[in-house]
Structures are given as C-alpha cells and as structure tokens.
UniProtKB/TrEMBL annotation:
Domain of life: Eukaryota
Function: May be involved in cell wall biosynthesis.
UniProt similarity note: Belongs to the glycosyltransferase 37 family.
Protein name in the entry: Fucosyltransferase
Pfam families for this protein: XG_FTase (PF03254)
Keyword Cell wall biogenesis/degradation: yes
Gene Ontology BP term (one): cell wall organization
Subcellular location: Golgi apparatus, Golgi stack membrane
Membrane topology type: Single-pass type II membrane protein
GO molecular function: glycosyltransferase activity
Length: 496
C-alpha cells in the first residue's frame, strides 16, 4: 500500500486545488493536504480574488497568531480586563461542542466571517480538532493556546458577556435602538446556537456589525452554517461577490482549504477507497440518517419504508440499475454479465448495517436488467452517534471523505453529515425527504438546487425595516432549502 502514503510521480493532478493551497507544508506530516485531489476532481475553479484573500489571511494568522508578540499583548490585556481599541490583530475564537458535520459547517462559517472582518481565527483545542485535522495555516496554529485567559467554555446565552444579553439589558448609554453605544467592551460572546433568540440574531444586522467591528475579541458559539445570512448583510455583499462569483461554492472552496484529515484517518480513507471503490466504473454514495423518534433501540431501524425510499430514489433517478422480479436468477445474471462487465460500487454510511445488507441482498437475489454488477460497501456501523468519542469521530470523518469521492450522491435531508460530504465533492445530491407516518414520500427524493449546506435556524428579521419578513425572497441567490422549508441556502441564481 506504499502508494497510499506516497504521491506517485506518474499521476497528474491539481495538488494545490486551483491555487487554494500553497507549497511549503511538510507533506509527510499531513499527506491528505496534497493528495486529496488525486481522488476527487473539483467541478469549480476558485476565483483569483479568493486566492489573494487567502494569502493575506495566512499572513495575518502568522503575524498575530499564538506565540507572537501581538497575540501575547492582546492576551495580556484580555487577562487584565484592560479595554482596548481594535488593532491590526483582532480575534475570532470559536468554541466547539457539536457533532462532526456541524463542526465542519460552523468552522467554515466562522472562517468566512473572519475573512470578511479581517480577524484571526482561533478554534477550541479541547474538542479533538488537532486529532482530526492538520493545521490549515502555514507557520502558525489555529488552536487556542491552553493558557488562554478566559474560561470561554462557561459562557452561556445569559452570561453578561453575551451580545444578545447586552442588547436586552441595554448595558450601554444611549441604547434606544437595540444597538449598543458608548465604550465597547474588550470582548463579546456571540451565542448563535440553534436555540438562540431575537437579540442574539441581531448579530446579522449591519448596524450591529459596525459595533462589533470595534471589539478586539469576539468569542462565538454556534452549531449552524450561517453563511446564507452573511450574504444578506449589505456591507458584505460586494466582497462576497468578488470572493465567490459562483455563489454556491462557498463551502466547497473553503472546506477544501481548511480541512485536511490527519494521517491515520487519511490512510483509512485511501486504503478503503482503493480496496473497495477504485475499480468500479461508477461509485454511488448513499448517506442514511434516521430521524424516527421511537425507543432508543429502534431509532436507527430497521425501517422498511426507509429502505423502499432508498430503492425508489436510486432507481427512479437511474443511479442504480433496475432489477428483475425472479429470485434465484444467478444463471440469468451470469449470462447478462457476459455481455456487460460494468460494476457499480455503492458506498453506504449509516449507524445501522441493515440497509446496506438489504440492498446487497436484493442485488444478489435478483439479476439486474442490464447485467450490471452492484457491490455494496459500508465502512462502519456504530449503532449510535457518539459525538464526544474520538474513535467514532475519526470513523465519521473518514466516511465523509469517502462519500465525497463518489460520482453520484444520495443524502438524507436535514443531515449536516450529508451537507459536508456534498460540499467537499461539489456534487448536487439527490435529497431524500423525511417520511411521515412511515410512508415513502412522493417523490422519494429530489435534486438539490446547489451544493451548499442549509442554514437550519436562519433569522427572519428585516434589520432595515425592523420587522419580520421572508428572507428567502430578498435576493435571488438566497432561497429556502429543499429539506428545511424555513431554512436558507445559497444558490447560483440571478433572478428572483
């Protein structure tokens, strides 16, 4: 398996991902950084302006990151409670607590916000980020130092440091318009989890952004992909348009820039890919997430209606071949295969192995109408999600990357795990909708409008008009999600 861990000079591929990456990193310490392109070809090219801004951000991270004189001075002032004006080194610290898919979405969102506001991104070192991913920035670390002066993990929505709480309690003089005035605090805690309230969500208003611009330290907690709402802030729109002329490529480009699995995870990915998927003519990924609310033992199945939905989607959309009705059709199948040597490799990811077993059983017992061989593979079946278990998260990350290496993708609606895989791949998936009363939806799935994730808990407040409104109808490139009717996602459209 030497070639799994050593780039081959005989394979041509865009190792720098169209300029997103730069040379200079130690390849042996992070093999995935320059090898990912060998297993996946991007359908999109990053803009020259995005590349330029990434290079500037790298310089900023190196100038102001942990261990530098600028960071030490800023940290000292933070420890003493000394108020300070913003400088060339302003910080955005992300606390992390959610599952792996959510983590990837929230880090991407916060990094984009750091780009837009010229802040240094630091991420929580206590949630295995260093075990899962390589450092993305050259010559510095994005992990919060262990001696950081604030116990940010203790901050809550009702903490005095919370921006929403500051607004609600009108802690600054002259605050008559739900915005703060007067002396700015030396740090602010932004609570943007899914259960945030009206005052927390004023973060997405332009006036509030002007206030926050003057705060040196922002500490943010979120479990959401809030990028669509950044596109609705007028002050950011021109910059976002230059960064992403193809608007629905935000996660695709930034995730491939930021996330590089550690060597042990990458070895698992490449070994599995080469052993089970590489030789197939076509690779189909099926990401299965169950949302049933029954007892804990039944939560992930087996549910026959979910299996029927998978088959209906895959065969209606011609992703998998149709099968004959007769059982024990081995002789007919062998005859057909003499005329068709085509193989489709199906990669399923699920907490339960029952679905992949049943799909394989169906194709073992029934001949396909065109003689295509279908081989079904599932790397793991953990039964229950354990988002705080390191081994579990490493398996999950390996599966996200394996899904991103398929040619076609079926995902479960509402799943951030699926969003991460489709974003890395740059694929518009077929989204399976949630069933009601154990009945297969009609249609069982639909093609996504874009490769972007959905912002599940998007605000619906028009900051300028100061009233609630439908923010999915304000600009043509921010629409409601297919799988979450109240959510928002970015699409590459120019007309409402």
């Amino acid at each position: 398996m030497l070639d799994d861990i050593s780039p081959s000079p005989h394979i041509e591929y865009d190792r720098l991902l169209g300029g997103l990456l730069i040379d200079g990193f130690d390849e042996k310490s992070c093999r995935s950084r320059y090898q990912f392109a060998r297993y996946h070809t991007s359908p999109s090219i990053p803009s020259p302006y995005l590349i330029e801004r990434l290079r500037k951000q790298e310089l900023l991270q190196k100038k102001c990151g942990p261990g530098t004189k600028a960071y030490n001075e800023a940290s000292k002032k933070l420890r003493s409670g000394q108020s300070t004006n913003t400088t060339d080194c302003n910080y955005l610290l992300l606390t992390i607590h959610a599952g792996l898919g959510n983590r990837m979405l929230e880090i991407t969102s916060v990094f984009l916000y750091a780009l837009l506001t010229n802040r240094i991104l630091l991420v929580d070192r206590y949630m295995e980020i260093g075990d899962l991913f390589c450092e993305p920035f050259p010559g510095t670390s994005w992990l919060v130092p262990s001696d950081f002066p604030l116990n940010y993990g203790d901050f809550t929505q009702r903490s005095p440091e919370s921006y929403g709480n500051m607004l609600q309690n009108k802690v600054a003089a002259g605050n008559t318009d739900l915005s703060l005035a007067g002396t700015r605090p030396h740090y602010v805690f932004l609570y943007l989890d899914g259960d945030n309230d009206f005052h927390d969500r004023l973060f997405f208003c332009e006036d509030d952004q002007r206030f926050l611009q003057g705060v040196q330290w922002l500490i943010i907690r979120t479990d959401m992909y809030f990028v669509p709402s950044l596109f609705l802030i007028p002050a950011f729109q021109d910059e976002l348009g230059r960064l992403f002329p193809e608007k629905d490529t935000v996660f695709h480009h930034l995730a491939r820039y930021l996330f590089h699995p550690s060597n042990d995870i990458w070895y698992t990915v490449t070994k599995y890919y080469r052993f089970y998927l590489a030789k197939a003519e076509k690779r189909v990924g099926i990401q299965i997430r169950i949302y049933e609310k029954k007892g804990i033992l039944q939560r992930n199945g087996p549910f026959p209606h979910i299996l029927n939905q998978i088959f209906s989607c895959a065969q209606n959309e011609k992703l998998l071949p149709e099968i004959g009705m007769a059982e024990g059709a081995a002789e007919t199948q062998n005859k057909a295969q003499t005329q068709n040597n085509r193989t489709i490799a199906v990669l399923t990811t699920s907490l339960s192995s029952w679905y992949s077993d049943q799909i394989q059983k169906k194709y073992d017992e029934h001949a396909t109408v065109d003689g295509t061989t279908v081989e079904v593979h599932q790397p793991s079946h953990e039964e229950y999600q354990r988002s705080k278990n390191k081994k579990h998260n490493k398996k999950a990350l390996a599966e996200i990357y394996l899904l991103s290496m398929t040619d076609e993708l079926i995902t479960s609606g509402f799943s951030t795990f699926g969003y991460a895989a489709q974003g890395l791949a740059g694929l518009k998936p077929w989204i399976m909708f949630r069933s009601e009363s154990h009945v297969v939806p009609d249609p069982p799935c639909d093609r996504a409008m874009s490769i972007e994730p959905c912002f599940h808990n998007a605000p619906f407040y028009d900051c300028k008009a100061k009233r609630n409104t439908d923010l999915g109808k304000v600009v043509p490139y921010v629409r409601h999600c297919e799988d979450v009717s109240w959510g928002l996602k970015i699409v590459n459209q120019t007309q409402l």
